[in-house]
Design brief:
Number of domains: 2
Structural class: alpha+beta
Distance between the termini: 55 Å
Shape: elongated
Strand content: 15-25%
Length: 68
Amino acid sequence: MSKTVCYSCGNEFSSDRAKLGFKTCLDCGEVEANKIKHCVAPMHKSNYMLFTRTDDLKGINNKGGLIK
């Protein structure tokens, strides 16, 4: 099993992980994953929506529309 070098810290990680498309080791990948925050919210009489900005969530579930 060959090793691949993490672009973030320079440590080696499994080539199987690299084949899956990851460019970081597990530790650096966890740090990067925690930087991204998102929320899934149900819409009134509709489907669920994915939100990545907090400002988009304010007043979104009111029947009258978006309130800021």
